[in-house]
TrEMBL record:
The protein, known as: DNA repair protein
Residues passing through the membrane, by range: none
Every Fe2OG dioxygenase domain range: 125-227
UniProt cross-references to InterPro entries, sorted A to Z: Alkb, AlkB-like, AlkB-like_sf, Oxoglu/Fe-dep_dioxygenase_dom
Keyword Iron: yes
Record keyword Repeat present: no
Length: 228
């Protein structure tokens, strides 16, 4: 179903086997080194959802004013996270280990997902996965994802517990927005004008995951093109 121009929700896109396989991969990626981490937000707060990055690490990055590249991966600013956020090849606020590689099969999954939702597409080279794990009362505030330098659609896959996904507008974090329930196996693709819309996860419904999946909590996998 089309939620807004370029924003398409495909319920139940991953069958039970595909969900199990993707979950098994997520469990490996979550292991150290460079596994599941607690993310500090630019304002000095802490995200309640924990995250794993593949391909590029998202966090505070100091960039060379001349060439624009990440120049030092550990900003060394205990308590003061004033560095601009962005992507770098090594972990910053995790354990400092290099980020895990982005596997080719995940890029193929991303292209298939974009085509399934939006129709024929350029063969985008997906190179980032951000995997968010929600347990307990974890949520995600309204935000915009603008650290990528590509207009490729973002692909989102959900596993485990059902959540309320709030899809907003491109102007403000406030209304108008549309609330959509995302369930295990659902695909959501954000392209075109929806790519820069505010969005968040105000609520996760505990113990709603399919029992046979064996996941307590919710995982969301987003696939992106860095353009970097
Ligand atoms: C719309 N994740 O990782 S998925 C995120 O469920 C993020 O974990 C949420 O917001 C989650 O940044 C929402 C849906 C989503 C993901 C990325 C988007 C919607 C998006 C990027 C641009 C526009
Ligand atoms: Fe986001």
């Amino acid at each position: 179903a089309r939620v807004a121009p370029g924003a398409v929700h495909v319920p139940d896109w991953l069958d039970a086997d595909a969900q199990r396989e993707l979950l098994a991969a997520c469990r490996q990626w979550a292991l150290p080194p460079a596994g599941l981490r607690t993310v500090r937000t630019p304002g000095g707060g802490t995200m309640t959802a924990r995250q794993v990055c593949l391909g590029w690490h998202w966090g505070p990055v100091r960039r060379c004013p001349n060439c624009g590249r990440a120049v030092r991966d550990n900003p060394g600013c205990p308590g003061r996270h004033w560095y601009p956020y962005g992507y770098a090849r090594t972990a910053v606020d995790g354990d400092g280990a290099p980020v895990k590689p982005f596997p080719a099969w995940l890029g193929e999954l991303g292209r298939r997902a974009a085509v399934a939702a939006l129709g024929p597409q350029e063969p985008y080279a997906y190179d980032i996965a951000l995997i968010n794990f929600y347990d307990g009362d974890a949520r995600m505030g309204m935000h915009r994802d603008s650290d990528e330098r590509s207009d490729a659609p973002v692909v989102s896959l959900s596993l485990g517990d059902t959540c309320v996904f709030r899809f907003g507008n491109t102007e403000t974090r406030a209304r108008p927005y549309t609330d959509v329930e995302l369930r295990s196996g659902d695909l959501f693709v954000f392209g075109g004008p929806s790519r820069l819309a505010f969005h968040g996860v105000p609520r996760v419904y505990g113990r709603t995951a399919p029992t046979e999946l064996g996941l307590s909590g919710r995982l969301n996998i987003t696939l992106r093109v860095s353009g970097l």
